[in-house]
Amino acid sequence: MRPVEMCSHTSLLLFVILNVVLVNSSKYQNQRSPRKFPVGFRFGTATAAYQVEGAWNEDGKTESIWDYLTHTNSSAIRDGSNGDIAADSYHLYKRDVEMMRELGLDYYRFSLSWPRILPTAFPDKINEAGVKYYNNLIDEMLKYNIEPIVTIYHWDLPQKLQKMGGWSNPYIIDWYSDFARVCFKLFGHKVKKWITINEPAQICDFGYGRDLLAPMLQIPGVADYLCARNLLLAHAKAYHIYDKEFRPKQNGAIFITLSAQFYSYEFGKYKEAALEANDFNWAIYSYPIFSKTGDFPPSMKKRVARKSAEQGFFRSRLPELNPEEIAFIKGTSDYFGLNHYFSFYVYRNDSVNGMFETPSTDDDLGVATYFGEGWQIGESNATMFVPKGFYYLLTKIRNDYNNPPVLVTENGFATRGGLRDDDRVTYYRYYISAMLDAIAEGSDIRAYTAWSMMDNFEWAAGYTERFGLYEVDFSSPNRTRTPRKSAFIYKQIVRTRELDWDYEPESYVMTIDKGH
Ligand SMILES: *[C@@H]1O[C@H](CO)[C@@H](O)[C@H](O)[C@H]1NC(C)=O
Ligand SMILES: *[C@@H]1O[C@H](CO)[C@@H](O)[C@H](O)[C@H]1NC(C)=O
Ligand SMILES: *[C@@H]1O[C@H](CO)[C@@H](O)[C@H](O)[C@H]1NC(C)=O
Ligand SMILES: *[C@@H]1O[C@H](CO)[C@@H](O)[C@H](O)[C@H]1NC(C)=O
């Protein structure tokens, strides 16, 4: 056990240094005895609409930016695939709920497809067939006491709105919050946890700054920052609508989910660079919502304003939030929804100058990243194995934002497939243990979500990266789901509320044994 954490920056840095030492000496040993979870701690798994549903043009659904991208750009997806059918959850939702029961989940996190519910993108026309699909799924879950946690927006923007600029158009604040209001009205009597938006940094940076996600706009240092501003205001508007008009009757919670990788350093001189890398990569969204002052992180405002001036811009490329906007955004999340996968080391020295396109977020930040030795386990390098990074990230969130209640809304590991996924088992055990370390030191973490319940369309990686506890046979029209070893390990954790490092499943037959 580590000494009890003191709420100061110095102790955080001390832990970061310890992290480096521990990771490097590869003697990282967590407590190996069985570890209990706090009473009331909850477990789930997650998916997203475009990644599992399929039925891309069925029953009145219209085109999303992912339909458009996969159908028009043959080089955009690593294996040339798309989500036209994906795991076919649109038709196989009963099997999906069966898997939730096999795993004994407390909840399941899934997302709503905007163009399935609103085919015109606007609330003038509601697609009853789409609504019926989500009602069927939710009702089937509730029948077995599995709580729905619903993401309103998980990346599948109506293509029509993209033609009008998508998240770079300030009118998205209305378009998105109108959609959110429709969702509250349609499902709010049954759904008590809403996630407004999944992973803003990936939406804006990867989609508007780079060519890693739809719409692959590639206007870095400009469109990504416009997207960030509009997205924060859209999220906040949905929060206020729920808080004022729906919460009094529906009594639920609403929050945002951020993906935060942890940026650390091997050499003390890069301490500030690491702090700023965390600011640029995810605190751009958490600071405006969870900090005492609100607004974008000071380090970002300063660096982008200086660079912009040097480059001949008349104002900072990072839009200024006025005092009303800052107040409107601050405090608009009932939980800190956290997705986390791995960590980076950073450095910043002369060799970084000129490394990046100008202007760009990378150039504004001015740090280079790399992976530590021994961080890669398994065949895939889509995720690295750095459990300590998760612990330091959770500690940083506790210290920076006065210990907000955290729901881990995604964590997981990619393989190339196969049922014997020992690397994934290792990953889950160590990451869950790192989370328990943070909890032991006072972090208010209330839930853990494995990404993903089943293999699915992994965005630009297509079907080459497999994240599922269940394997999906994408060559079969039935999209047969088969539990991997990790499914049995996770089931045991959920059933016993305990992390047992040595548990080996006796049989590889999945049965439903939740008491209902
Ligand atoms: C197609 O995808 C690639 C990424 O693989 C991207 O660089 C390119 O800009 C895209 N083309 C269009 C027209 O969006
Ligand atoms: C900058 O740091 C990197 C990583 O430590 C190192 O490889 C490189 O040689 C350094 N370059 C300069 C110019 O200091
Ligand atoms: C995996 O890492 C290798 C070497 O660092 C790199 O060349 C390759 O592009 C990476 N693959 C993926 C899928 O990120
Ligand atoms: C698909 O499911 C049907 C109905 O359950 C079954 O008859 C068929 O053999 C299955 N096909 C494959 C390829 O698994």
TrEMBL record:
EC numbers: 3.2.1.21, 3.2.1.46
The active site of this protein is located at 410
An example Gene Ontology molecular-function term: galactosylceramidase activity
Q: Which residues form the signal peptide?
A: 1-25
Might you name a Gene Ontology BP term for this protein?
Answer: carbohydrate catabolic process
Signal as a keyword of this entry, yes or no, is yes
Please, which domain of life does this record's source organism belong to? Eukaryota
Q: Which SUPFAM superfamilies does the entry link to?
A: (Trans)glycosidases
Keywords annotated in UniProt: Glycosidase, Hydrolase, Signal
Q: What InterPro entries does this protein map onto?
A: GH (IPR017853), GH_1_N_CS (IPR033132), Glyco_hydro_1 (IPR001360), Glyco_hydro_1_AS (IPR018120)
Reaction equation(s) it catalyzes: a beta-D-galactosyl-(1<->1')-N-acylsphing-4-enine + H2O = an N-acylsphing-4-enine + D-galactose; beta-D-glucosyl-(1<->1)-N-octadecanoylsphing-4-enine + H2O = N-octadecanoylsphing-4-enine + D-glucose; a beta-D-xylosyl-(1<->1')-N-acylsphing-4-enine + cholesterol = cholesteryl 3-beta-D-xyloside + an N-acylsphing-4-enine; beta-D-galactosyl-(1<->1')-N-octadecanoylsphing-4-enine + H2O = N-octadecanoylsphing-4-enine + D-galactose
User: Per the similarity annotation, which family is this?
Assistant: Belongs to the glycosyl hydrolase 1 family. Klotho subfamily.
Q: What is this protein called?
A: Cytosolic beta-glucosidase
